[in-house]
Automatic annotation (TrEMBL):
The lineage of its organism: Bacteria, Pseudomonadati, Bacteroidota, Sphingobacteriia, Sphingobacteriales. Its cofactor is [4Fe-4S] cluster; FMN. This is 12-oxophytodienoate reductase. One of its GO terms (molecular function) is FMN binding. Residues 5-351 form the NADH:flavin oxidoreductase/NADH oxidase N-terminal domain.
Length: 368
C-alpha cells in the first residue's frame, strides 16, 4: 500500500497543512463547566506530534444559553474557556500541527443522561429533534439573529486566538441541520420552505456572518451530512440537482471547504456512479472537500457508541478514490481517538502496529 499521495501538502487561504490527513471532530466531554483542561491540550498536542495535518476539535458550543446538553462539553465563549483554547492551539502549533475549532449549536436535544439541563429550554427551528419528538422552543426572529451573531463571534475568537481555520458544524441533526431537514423545520416564514434550497437560508446566513467576521483570507469549513442520527438512510438531497441547489448557496456565502460526513466513505451517494458524498460535492461545487467514515476500520462509528469494536482495514479503496481526485482531504476519527500515532504508523507502513478501535477508548483521553 503506497500512501505517498496522502502526504502531499495542501494550501488554501490561511490554511497550509503538511499532509491530507485530518483528525475528525470528536466530542469527548472532558471539559468541566465548558473549560478545556491541560489534559485536553495534551490530548490534541499528542495528535499533532503524531503527524496529523489538520486537527478539528471536538464540537465546541457558541454563546447561546441552551447551545449544549452536556456540562462537560467545551464552550467557545467566555474568558476561561477561551484561555483554555488558546493553550490548546499554542500546544498544537508548538508540535507542528494546524487546527480548527468545530463551532457548534446542538439545537433541540434529548436531555443528557447525566441529568444536567441548560438554564433555558433547547431551541430549534420548530422545537423538533426528529419526527414526533419536541423538546424545546421554536426560535423567534431575534433568537435566530442572536444565534447567527454568536456563530460569528466564535469564529472571530478562533482567528484572534491563532487557529488556522474554523469549521461550522452543519451536520448530524444539530441546529443548522435541523433547519435543513423538512422533518425538523416546519416553519412557514423565510427560515422554512418546501425546498431544501429555501431551508438552507439559515446555514447561508451563518456562513455569511462568519465570513464577515474572519475576512476573505481565512479558510472556512462547513460540515454537512445527508444522514441523521434518527434516520441513517435519509437523503436531504435525493439527486445531484438537489445537491447542487443545497451546496451552491453555501459556497456562494463563503464556504471554502465542505466536510462531507458519511458513515462509510466507500458508499455511493447516488445511483449510476460510485462517487461518494465528498466526490459529488466537489463535482457540483468545484470546492475542496473532506471525506470521512470508517477510513482504516472495519465497522462504522454509530455502532461504536453501542459498544462495537473495529479492526484495522486496508486503505486501498480510499487511495483509489483519492488518487482519482474525488476529494482533497481525508478525515479520520476513531483510529486517532485510540492512537495518537496512527498517522506516523501509516506513513512508515507499520500496519502491524495499528490498534483498531474499542469502546474503552471512549472513556479516557488516550495519550499513548
Ligand atoms: C466519540 C465520537 C464523538 C464524535 N463527536 C463528533 C462531534 O463533536 N462533531 C462531529 O461533527 N462529529 C462527531 N463524531 C463523528 C466523527 O467526526 C466522524 O465523522 C465519525 O466518527 C466517522 O469517522 P470514523 O469512522 O473515522 O470514526 C464523533 C464520533 C465519535 C466516535
Amino acid at each position: 500500500m503506497n500512501t505517498d499521495s496522502l502526504f502531499r501538502p495542501f494550501n488554501l487561504k490561511s490554511l497550509s497543512i503538511k499532509n491530507r490527513i485530518v483528525m475528525a471532530p470528536m466530542t469527548r466531554s472532558f471539559s468541566p463547566n465548558g473549560v478545556p483542561t491541560d489534559d485536553v491540550a495534551a490530548y490534541y498536542r499528542k495528535r499533532a506530534e503524531g503527524g496529523v495535518g489538520l486537527i478539528l476539535s471536538e464540537g465546541t458550543v457558541i454563546d447561546r444559553p441552551s447551545s449544549s446538553n452536556d456540562a462537560n462539553i467545551p464552550h467557545f465563549y467566555g474568558a476561561d474557556a477561551l484561555t483554555g483554547w488558546e493553550d490548546v492551539i499554542k500546544n498544537v502549533h508548538q508540535a507542528g500541527g494546524k487546527m480548527a475549532p468545530q463551532i457548534w449549536h446542538m439545537g433541540i436535544m434529548d436531555n443528557h443522561h447525566s441529568g444536567w439541563i441548560p438554564p433555558v429550554p433547547f431551541e430549534g427551528p420548530s422545537g423538533l429533534n426528529r419526527p414526533g419528538f419536541v423538546n424545546g422552543n421554536t426560535m423567534t426572529d431575534s433568537d435566530i439573529a442572536d444565534t447567527i451573531a454568536a456563530f460569528g463571534r466564535a469564529a472571530a475568537d478562533a482567528k484572534r486566538l491563532g487557529f488556522d481555520t474554523v469549521e461550522i458544524h452543519g451536520a448530524h441533526g444539530y441546529l443548522i441541520d435541523q433547519f435543513f431537514w423538512n422533518e425538523t423545520n416546519k416553519r412557514t416564514d423565510i427560515w422554512g420552505g418546501k425546498t431544501l434550497a429555501e431551508r438552507t437560508r439559515f446555514g447561508v446566513e451563518v456562513i455569511k456572518e462568519v465570513r464577515k467576521q474572519v475576512g476573505e483570507d481565512f479558510a472556512l469549513i462547513i460540515r454537512l451530512s445527508q444522514f441523521k442520527p434518527a434516520n441513517y438512510t435519509n437523503k436531504l438531497a435525493a439527486t445531484p440537482q438537489e445537491l447542487e441547489a443545497w451546496i451552491s448557496p453555501l459556497a456562494d456565502a463563503g464556504a471554502d471547504i465542505f466536510h462531507c460526513s458519511q458513515r462509510r466513505f466507500w458508499e455511493a451517494e447516488f445511483d449510476d456512479s460510485d462517487l461518494n458524498f465528498a466526490g459529488w460535492v466537489k463535482k457540483v461545487s468545484g470546492k475542496a472537500t473532506i471525506t470521512v467514515g470508517s477510513v482504516g476500520l472495519t465497522g462504522e462509528f454509530l455502532a461504536a457508541f453501542a459498544g462495537e469494536s473495529s479492526q484495522p482495514s486496508s486503505l486501498d479503496e480510499l487511495l483509489r478514490r483519492f488518487d482519482r481526485g474525488d476529494f482533497d482531504l481525508v478525515a479520520v476519527g476513531r483510529p486517532l481517538l485510540s492512537d495518537p500515532n496512527w498517522v506516523k504508523k501509516i506513513k512508515e507502513q507499520r500496519t502491524g502496529e495499528l490498534k483498531g478501535f474499542s469502546k474503552e477508548a471512549l472513556a479516557e483521553l488516550v495519550m499513548e
